[in-house]
Every structure is written in structure tokens, then in C-alpha cells.
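A.,

Following up on our hallway conversation. C-alpha cells first:
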């Protein structure tokens, strides 16, 4: 069975990713996937069903789930919910690895759940308000969360099977990390295979087996995600964005963007500007 590999891109102003779950409006299902980051789903309102492999973990208000690096998981949210998602790059735990880039956290509830849940909620509220010095306060809360994970939730009695599967996925994760760092260059499957000591055929099969996607599609997905982020948060021209993120020109970017998101990048930018303007006007009326 194939599972999709998810690319994690941290927030621009933080060393981790913090956001509201995209399935907040309900009628949402995220298929099985995996990533290198440790992930926490914290349900503040409503409910959702979480799956680690085939095992179900129903979550309701005040509960959360810790997803380990390289752990296959899926989410089903049939109803509206308010869920804060925290994704932590695995490298931030490097001083606490129990094996080759390996650290494991329990899925079972602990007495400290209420404290960790409160820290995540507070961190997200501070990040949303973005008052003076918010970044330092957010990072302070983040490291309190990290300390709780290490001191209260880490498991050291792991199986050989867990270690071996993690090792296999780490090989691909190392390759995808390299792609992420060099996505804006003229990167080919042949060049990548040579760098990591594989044949192009073997590397292509590895992508299909563990990432559920071709190398070419994976590379383009990374380029699109970074282009989308800059498109949303800057006034840089489409031509500049295209060249900066590995596309030969703005037409190639527009074609790929429309295929991926169902809308032209120029139209998306206009919609985002309109949304921000409306939000600003609404905030002014409230004050």
C-alpha cells in the first residue's frame, strides 16, 4: 500500500509550523500520509477521528494526539471543529534521539495532558494576536511544550521493527530534505540518484513505494508550495516568483498552479488582497 509523503514548511517567522487544521469546516478526510516532523493535533472545539495506521483514536474538545516522525496517519473530520496543529522538525529533538534520528512519543493520555493542551492553546492565541514581542513569547511557550514532550511523553522501549521502518523512511526523508533545499535549481532524477548512490530506476521506485508520487511530481509540488507562499504574502511579480522557485517562466508557473489549486495565480492574489482588505475594514469597525 502506498502512502503520501507530506512536505512540511515552517511558518516564515518560526522554526516550526503552527496553524488551524484545514478540516475545521467538517466533511473532511485526509488520507494516509507521513512526514519527518513530530505533529500534535490539539482539539479546542468539536471532535474528529484520528488514525495511526489502522488504529482509531477519537478526539474531542481538550484532547490531542502526538504523531511521531515517519508514522503513517490519517484524519477524518465529519463535523466542524477548531483544532490547532503544531508540526515540529525532527532535528529539534536531535539531543534526545535513542537511535539513528529516532525518537518516539506515546499515544496514550497522561496526567499532564491538560497542561500541554493549555500551552498549545496559549501559544496559538499569542501568535494570532501578534503583539510586540510575540515571537519571543511564542518560542518560550514552544520550548515548554518541547520539555513536556521529552519529560512526560517520550518512550525508550521501542521495537526493532519500529527502528527498521524508521530507518527505511529516513533514507527517503533525507532525499526529500535535499530536494527541499535545492528545489529552485535544475534538479534531475539522474543527478539526485548519483548524489545518494542509487540508480535512477531504484530511486524512482523508492519514491513510488514510500511517497506514493513520482519524483517529478514531488519536485513540482515543492516548487508550487513555496511559490504559493510568496504569492500570498508579497507583491513580487509572477515572473520573479516563477524564476525564484524553479519555474522557467510565469506561464509555466500559472499552468502548474492552476492544475494544482484550480485557479490562476493572478486571480488567487486578487482574492487574497480583497480578503485582507475586508478583514482590515471589519477590524476597524469593531474598534
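Then the amino acids I'd put at each of the 287 positions:
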Amino acid at each position: 500500500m502506498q502512502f503520501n509523503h507530506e512536505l512540511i514548511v515552517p511558518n516564515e517567522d518560526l522554526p516550526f509550523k503552527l496553524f488551524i487544521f484545514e478540516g475545521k469546516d467538517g466533511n473532511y478526510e485526509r488520507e494516509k500520509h507521513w512526514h519527518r516532523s513530530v505533529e500534535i493535533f490539539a482539539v479546542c472545539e468539536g471532535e474528529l477521528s484520528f488514525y495511526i495506521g489502522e488504529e482509531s483514536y477519537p478526539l474531542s474538545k481538550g484532547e490531542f494526539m502526538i504523531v511521531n516522525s515517519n508514522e503513517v496517519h490519517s484524519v477524518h473530520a465529519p463535523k466542524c471543529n477548531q483544532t490547532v496543529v503544531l508540526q515540529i522538525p525532527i532535528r529539534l529533538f536531535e539531543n534526545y534521539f535513542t537511535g539513528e534520528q529516532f525518537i518516539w512519543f506515546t499515544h496514550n493520555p497522561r496526567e499532564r495532558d491538560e497542561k500541554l493542551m493549555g500551552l498549545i492553546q496559549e501559544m496559538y492565541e499569542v501568535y494570532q494576536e501578534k503583539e510586540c514581542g510575540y515571537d519571543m513569547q511564542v518560542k518560550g511557550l514552544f520550548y515548554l511544550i518541547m520539555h513536556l514532550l521529552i519529560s512526560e511523553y517520550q518512550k525508550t522501549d521501542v521495537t526493532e521493527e519500529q527502528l527498521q521502518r524508521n530507518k527505511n523512511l529516513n533514507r527517503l526523508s533525507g532525499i526529500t530534505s535535499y530536494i527541499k533545499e535545492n528545489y529552485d535549481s535544475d534538479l534531475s532524477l539522474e543527478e539526485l540518484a548519483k548524489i545518494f548512490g542509487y540508480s535512477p530506476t531504484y530511486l524512482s521506485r523508492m519514491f513510488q513505494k514510500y511517497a506514493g508520487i513520482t519524483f517529478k511530481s514531488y519536485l513540482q509540488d515543492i516548487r508550487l508550495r513555496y511559490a504559493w507562499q510568496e504569492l500570498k504574502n508579497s507583491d513580487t511579480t509572477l515572473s520573479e516568483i516563477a524564476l525564484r522557485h524553479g519555474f522557467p517562466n510565469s506561464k509555466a508557473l500559472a499552468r502548474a498552479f492552476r492544475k494544482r489549486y484550480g485557479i490562476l495565480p493572478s486571480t488567487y492574489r486578487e482574492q487574497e488582497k480583497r480578503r485582507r482588505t475586508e478583514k482590515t475594514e471589519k477590524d476597524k469597525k469593531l474598534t
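The radius of gyration is 20 Å. Curious whether your intuition agrees with the design.

B.
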